[in-house]
Write a structure and sequence with these properties.
The chain is of the alpha/beta class. The chain is about 30% helix and about 20% strand. The strands form four sheets. A seven-stranded parallel β-sheet has the order 3-2-1-4-5-9-13, with helices on both faces. It has a three-stranded antiparallel β-sheet with strand order 7-6-8, with no helix packed on it. A three-stranded mixed β-sheet has the order 10-12-14. Helix 1 links the parallel strand 1 and strand 2. Helix 1 crosses helix 7 and helix 2 crosses helix 3. The chain starts with a strand and ends in a 13-residue tail after the last helix.
């Protein structure tokens, strides 16, 4: 099978490329190399057809996608960003870049499988249950609540703190920041393409991905990478709120395997799937794990960022049932 992997020189994409090539597939990569300062990363492969070009350029897609059997779309601007001033860059890279690719695939008459890298951020806050009123959707946390240390979402009916529950793919979608909004729009665009071209579109909603090749110490890196970068500098990792935020951390090699399963499953899956480890952890727990082997301890600094959610923990049951995907990598935060 010939597969186009956009963003195939990046963090997740490069692991997808490795697994595809090692499984005997022919791989084409479309990547601008902007994340690498325009230079080839150490994991560049001689047995891959690389197209160094901007994924926002439809002509680059036309050149790379000719004759492919499947597309794995990883290219995106990731992370929460610094502030709302990033809005144009996110929309340009994620929405316009995806639209450029789908236009090119339309021109090429592509009807193969399409796998989209999406994110758990499309859910907004996770699922919550009030002991008295059952399932409830919490409102937005206010700056005053964050400043006062009132971090737990409260029942909109009685005001009592609620308990998080597992989120499945049928949960309401409520993106709460610019990045999340662009990821949901990517989903909508790709699903529209699939309906009009009878193409199977598998949307993989990644939870917090970590592991080798993840960029460190940037505004767009995941929290695990930011903690690692701080420890590497000899600094205590800074933990916002009280560290009790709950997340699912899934290793990049598991994420790559989920992509290959979506591309090669005997029965293709059309729709969204949570890609998660199934083993939730608190942010403070992750910070402590990052400090292991050093004399450092996490610094809990309180406060918080508007747009961040308190708890988001996925149910990976549908991915197991429909793709046979179950995370296998043990939890570790080393660079290897």
């Amino acid at each position: 099978m010939r597969v186009l992997v956009t963003g195939g020189a990046g963090f997740v994409g490069s692991h997808v490329v490795d697994l595809l090539v090692d499984s005997g597939h022919e791989v084409v990569v479309l990547d601008s190399l902007v994340a690498h300062g325009g230079t080839r990363p150490a994991w560049w492969r001689s047995d891959v057809d690389y197209h160094v070009a901007d994924a926002r350029d439809p002509h680059a897609w036309l050149a790379a996608a000719g004759g492919v059997d499947a597309v794995c779309h990883q290219a995106a601007r990731v992370g929460l960003g610094i502030d709302f001033a990033d809005v144009r860059a996110y929309v340009d890279d994620n929405d316009a870049g995806t639209a450029a690719g789908l236009w090119a695939l339309h021109e090429l008459g592509f009807r193969g499988r399409f796998v989209l890298a999406s994110s758990m951020v499309v859910y907004g806050e996770g699922r919550y249950r009030c002991a008295e009123h059952g399932d409830q959707r919490p409102g937005l946390r206010s700056p005053a609540d964050l400043a006062a240390g009132r971090y737990e979402p409260r029942c909109p009916t009685c005001g009592a703190p609620m308990q998080w529950e597992l989120v499945d793919e049928t949960a309401p979608l409520e993106p709460r920041n610019t990045y999340a909004a662009t990821k949901l729009h990517q989903e909508h665009l790709c699903r529209a393409y699939g309906r009009e071209h009878e193409s199977m579109v598998t949307i993989l909603r990644y939870h917090n991905v970590y592991g080798p090749r993840c960029p460190l110490d940037t505004p767009y890196a995941g929290v695990a990478s930011l903690f690692r970068a701080a420890v590497a500098r000899g600094e205590r990792p800074r933990v916002l709120e009280d560290g009790g935020q709950t997340r699912d951390f899934v290793h990049v090699r598991d994420v790559a395997r989920a992509n290959v399963l979506a591309l090669t499953a005997a029965i293709p899956y059309d729709g969204a799937l949570n890609i998660a480890s199934g083993a939730p952890r608190s942010v403070l727990e992750v910070a402590r794990a990052t400090c292991e082997g050093s004399d450092l301890t996490p610094e809990v600094v309180g406060g918080g960022r508007l747009g961040d959610v308190r708890h988001i923990v996925a149910s990976p049951a549908r991915a197991a049932r429909c793709l046979g995907f179950v995370a296998q990598e043990p939890f570790h935060l080393t660079a290897s």
